[in-house]
Amino acid sequence: xxxxxxxxxxxxxxxxxxxxxxxxxxxxxxxxxxxxxxxxxxxxxxxxxxxxxxxxxxxxxxxxxxxxxxxxxxxxxxxxxxxxxxxxxxxxxxxxxxxxxxxxxxxxxxxxxxxxxxxxxxxxxxxxxxxxxxxxxxxxxxxxxxxxxx
Length: 150
Description:
The protein is mostly helical. It contains seven helices and two strands; from the N terminus they run H-H-H-E-E-H-H-H-H. It has helices at about 5-20, 30-40, 40-55, 70-75, 80-85, 110-125, 135-145, and strands at about 60, 65-70. It has a two-stranded antiparallel sheet. Strand 1 and strand 2 form a beta hairpin. Helix 1 packs across helix 2 (about 30-40), helix 1 (about 5-20) packs across helix 3 (about 40-55) and helix 5 (about 80-85) packs across helix 6 (about 110-125). The longest helix has 18 residues, at about 5-20. It is elongated, with a radius of gyration of 18 Å.
């Protein structure tokens, strides 16, 4: 199973915000600053931040003194749960795509892949965003500075 680019960006942003909060920085980073630090285009980061806000993982404050912060719920969010929310739990394969698979009514693969997908998520259920930022990852995340947008 491969995560979408959007989910990858969401995890990187959440992890970066977790260590930013831990570092006690007085100024919350902007979406543009976080996008630069994790190496993604601002437009992609803005869409992902909006989704993370909707899920209650990130808080965005506008204006002077504004910026992004990981919410308490976001910090303790299960990685497995977050991935389910971001990726959805639909089929791994396109059984119902056009044209639909002729085996879809009697296929055992679809169920096996669904079980494998759930096992993937379940393996990540005990981990939280905060767990992902322990050493050696946290110091590396803190060392990332804003890079020019590509």
